[in-house]
Design goal:
The chain has 201 residues and is of the alpha+beta class. 48% of the residues lie in helices and 8% in strands. It binds glutathione. The site of glutathione (GSH) has 13 residues, from helix 3.
């Protein structure tokens, strides 16, 4: 049963879905929908996801799933990317919610403003950079003495968090200030078979 993933490499939320499917060797068909060309708001796409957002996954029988982390959890079901221990599973969810509610709205959004929209600094909310620094520092502090976010092995939490974190440099947030975080990005990229997106320290 081949799944279809609607995505755009413009969005690291879409990258995450590709990363996990490739890692788990799950076959899929990738259909590119351009965010830049506003194809996400076209009547045809809104029939697939009325929220007008990528990524969306469609099963062979037509059932659909949106929200990147929900898709990751669905694809990872039954794999080693979901911890066996109940508390570790809780911690994985803790980091997935944190990624959506705290990390992405600052780390992902600052990159969007600076790198993709090329906005001049005086037109960017001045609270974004300190909040992004705080999110990255939180990750670095958690990773002191740890190799992965949960249970000392790669989980869905690492894949969700690495997607925008590895692109932080593009948003002017050099990870050289956070060595444990930087080392973790490279570890997860290597586990996933990705070339590093980090610039030289
Ligand atoms: N919480 C959602 C966020 C999805 C989202 O915001 N997608 C953006 C790209 S990162 C999008 O498709 N935007 C379409 C638009 O702005 O028209 C997820 O994790 O999947």
């Amino acid at each position: 049963m081949t799944i279809t993933i609607y995505g755009d490499s413009y969005s690291a939320h879409c990258d995450k879905v590709r990363f996990i499917a490739d890692h788990l060797k799950i076959p899929y068909r990738w259909i590119r929908i351009s965010i830049e060309k506003k194809e996400t708001q076209s009547p045809d796409f809104l029939k697939i996801n009325p929220a007008g957002e990528l990524p969306v996954m469609v099963l062979a029988d037509g059932r659909k799933l949106a929200q990147s982390n929900a898709i990751l959890l669905f694809l990872a079901e039954g794999s080693a990317l979901i911890p066996d221990d109940a508390l570790d599973r809780g911690l994985m969810h803790q980091w997935l919610f944190w990624e959506q509610l705290t990390h992405n709205p600052v780390v992902g959004y600052l990159r969007f403003q600076r790198f993709l929209l090329q906005k001049p600094e005086d037109q960017i909310d001045p609270t974004l950079a300190p909040r992004a620094d705080r999110a990255l520092a939180t990750m670095d502090s958690h990773l002191q003495g740890r190799r992965y976010f949960v249970g000392e092995r790669l989980s869905v939490a690492d894949i969700a968090l690495v997607a925008y974190t590895r692109l932080a440099d593009e948003g002017g947030m050099s990870l050289s200030r956070w060595p444990a975080l930087r080392a973790w990005v490279q570890r997860v990229e290597s586990d996933l078979g990705l070339a590093t997106a980090l610039s030289a320290a």
